[in-house]
Amino acid sequence: MKPLLIAITVILVAAPVALAAKFRGETSQERRAVVQTNADDEPTRITIRWRARCEEGHLSDDTTFLEPFRESTNTFVRDGGRYTTTVTDDRGREYEVSAKARVRAHLESEDEWRGRFRLLSAKVRRNGDLVTECSTRRIRWSANL
User: Which of 127, 121, 107 is nearest to 63 (CA)?
Assistant: First the structure.
């Protein structure tokens, strides 16, 4: 009985375990891009760091898209929508940002995701007053294992 138990234990320990993967890369703005997949190789999270031109200055932040995505397969993702976040400037002042963004991603090879991101609009408010509006052009990105 003991040899059988030991054999089963060895098989279970040595069996390959499917793990989630994290693909890391950068955007055409030389900023971070990350795609995270689950054990079934389905994308679960896409994070893009960006910098946008505003009417006054620039705004930098990141946008994270989580499943369920608008469209999704093991090799393709399309998502987008509105969200609200808070950012802090270098002097410690907080601003509320209401943004609309979209992302597309496709599996280029077994170890590389590629895609496009765009911040369509971001309204930056402080104490309820509109400070500035921002947007980006199309940002290309890639991420590797």
Answer: 121
Output the pTM of the full model: 0.84
Question: What is the Cα–Cα distance from 115 to 78, expressed in whole angstroms?
Answer: 10
Instruction: Give 30-88 pLDDT, tens digit per residue.
Output: 999 999 999 999 999 999 999 999 998 899 999 999 999 999 999 999 999 999 999 99
Segment holding 108, helix H or strand E? strand 94-109
- CA–CA dist 44, 36 (Å, integer): 6
Q: Tell me the longest C-alpha to C-alpha distance in the chain.
A: 76
Residue 82: phi and psi, rounded to 5, are -100, 150
In one-letter notation, the amino acid at residue 36 is: Q
Q: Smallest Cα–Cα separation from 115: which of 11, 57, 35, 44? A: 35
